[in-house]
Amino acid sequence: MNGRQRTLCLSGSNDNKHRCLPGIFGFVYMNKSNNVEIEILNLNKSFRDNHILKNLNLKIPSGKTTVIMGGSGAGKTVLLKHIMGLLKPDSGKILIKGEDITAKTERELDKLRSSFAMVFQFAALLNSLTVGQNVGLGLKERGELTQKEINKIVDEKLRLVGLDGKQHVMPGELSGGMKKRVGVARALAMNPEVILYDEPTAGLDPFMAGNVDELILDLKNRLKMTSIVVTHDMNSAFYVGDRICMLHEGRVIEEGTPEEIQNSTNHITRQFITRHSVQNTARVSDSGSGGK
Amino acid sequence: MRTILIYLGHRLLTFSENIGQMLRLLVETIYWCKQTFRNLDKIFPLMRRIGADSLPIASFTAIFIGMVLALQTGYTLEKFGMEASLGSIVSVAMCRELGPVLTGLLLAGRIGAGITAEIGTMSVSEEVDALKSLGINPVRYLSMPRFLACVFMLPVLVIYADVVGIFGGGVVSSTYFDVSFSIYFDKMAESLDFMEIFKGLVKSSMFGAIISIVGCHHGLKTTGGPGEVGTATTNSVVFSFVTIYIFDYFFTRLWL
Ligand SMILES: Nc1ncnc2c1ncn2[C@@H]1O[C@H](COP(=O)(O)OP(=O)(O)O)[C@@H](O)[C@H]1O
Ligand SMILES: [Mg+2]
């Protein structure tokens, strides 16, 4: 209740700034203010008669890492795509900095997305471009930096995900896990304030998965980045998460700190945790596993 | 009977919905053309792919059409002793109608299908979503360069097809009908004026717009898996064909 009050207040002032400084300057100003908070209200989404998200409510605090867990087909990816504005809901609102993005046009969204980045579940690299071009694509199209400056950032981000020297390789020649790390590098290159990871550690070996976890933590601590992490990997979830929420059949059934979730009495959550910790010892979790 | 009506009504609805979406895409694409100069690095390779790489098949088609045209009309004209006017008939038919329409249809198959397959694959593999997530407008990044490349390269190809087709007709005239090249080209120069050629080029430019917008639209709205890309490609080509035929008719009626 208190929190809600504060958001509304913040959003009000932001709106005013936005009006005073019209157009792109308003956005730049807001981007730097670093208090992004995402609020999802009564979100509904169906594909034909397949009701995926049912009156979903969720609040994502700024500067924190929120982990979303749930079985495959629970609608985690669909939820992330709504936050990026890639899918339009049937009903409900998504407030970002107090502004409802569901009512925005593609062109307005383009601007808003400049402070957001997403790591896709299957990397979604552009197959016609090299790894380096993929990572630098967003910066190049933004047109603010020279090619030399972009190359420098590309090298730096690729080094961060352990793929230094792969600049000129085509995505088709990479393994799934490497592609995913390129996806992380591409998202980081945009220097976003909010970063959405769709199963970032699935398909990575434990060593690399650990590296990605460290990266997520580091970005939060150093840059106060807001992260949303969709994952099946319980180790990862408890390691990086400030808050964890369980998504089941299109609803958030439980939400809390890692400790609260670990001690949860909800039987679905319990099942999810125990089953996965058993599985994780047996093999590296992949995106195909999960509950009903 | 009822089900047939419902089916037809449904088809009509999706058809008009498609048209509406394509017009929106067209407007959006034209809007982004303001950034042409920033995107030349994307436009030129596409121009080469659409223009230069289509030359062999376009000239092959044109030369045979020119020759057949001369043969068909030549035999009829010979009966009336009028084979000398072959030059004007072949050239006018080529520039007004056959050059633009046949090249348009050819490119709808060759380029339109390619555009839909490429963008459709990008849609189903989430590459289009990835573009959006990087703040890159897919209409600007994908549709606009293809639109401009098609709109500019189709007339170029048509000029080329016109020349090759007329030449093919000339070869047949001189070998089968005793119409020398000089008479053939004299007749051609007599009946062909600038407007004649120009209208054909405007028409082909429009065909280029149709091919690219229909291609991009079908690609962008592809969802599901790789199988859908095949369906989308077929639909795109059929839709381009139909639109080109209809457009050709009305264009010719309104501005001949
Ligand atoms: N574009 C789409 N069209 C139709 N159904 C979809 C689409 N995207 C997702 N779905 C369906 O929504 C459900 C949830 O998908 P998703 O969010 O990808 O699950 P996950 O939680 O594993 O990421 C699945 O049943 C999937 O079939
Ligand atoms: Mg998913």
Brief summary of the model shown:
Chain A is of the alpha/beta class. Chain A is 45% helix and 21% strand. Chain B has one domain (2-255).
Account of the 3D structure:
The complex is a heterodimer of chains A (292) and B (256). Chain A contains eleven helices and ten strands. Chain A has helices at residues 2-20, 23-33, 76-83, 106-112, 131-142, 147-160, 176-189, 206-223, 234-240, 258-262, 267-282, and strands at residues 38-47, 50-60, 65-69, 91-96, 99-100, 116-119, 194-198, 226-230, 243-248, 251-256. A six-stranded mixed beta sheet of chain A has the order 6-7-8-3-9-10, with helices on both faces. Chain A has a four-stranded antiparallel beta sheet with strand order 2-1-4-5, covered by helices on one side. Chain A is globular. Chain B has 256 residues and is an all-alpha fold. Chain B has one domain. In chain B, 86% of the residues lie in helices and 0% in strands. Chain B has nine helices and no strands. At the A-B interface, helix 4, strand 6 and helix 5 of A face helix 5 of B. Adenosine-5'-diphosphate is lined by residues 47, 52, 70, 72-78 of chain A.
Main features:
heterodimer; A: 292 residues; alpha/beta; 21% strand; disordered C terminus; B: 256 residues; mainly alpha; 9 helices; elongated; binds adenosine-5'-diphosphate; binds magnesium ion
Per-chain topology:
The complex is a heterodimer of chains A (about 290) and B (about 260).
Chain A: H1 2-20, H2 23-33, E1 38-47, E2 50-60, E3 65-69, H3 76-83, E4 91-96, E5 99-100, H4 106-112, E6 116-119, H5 131-142, H6 147-160, H7 176-189, E7 194-198, H8 206-223, E8 226-230, H9 234-240, E9 243-248, E10 251-256, H10 258-262, H11 267-282
Parallel strand pairs in A: 3-8, 3-9, 6-7, 7-8
Antiparallel strand pairs in A: 1-2, 1-4, 4-5, 9-10
Helix pairs in contact in A: 1-2, 5-6, 5-7, 6-7
Chain B: H1 2-32, H2 40-50, H3 55-79, H4 86-124, H5 127-133, H6 138-176, H7 181-191, H8 194-220, H9 226-254
Magnesium ion (MG) binds near residues 76, 77, 121 and 198 of chain A.
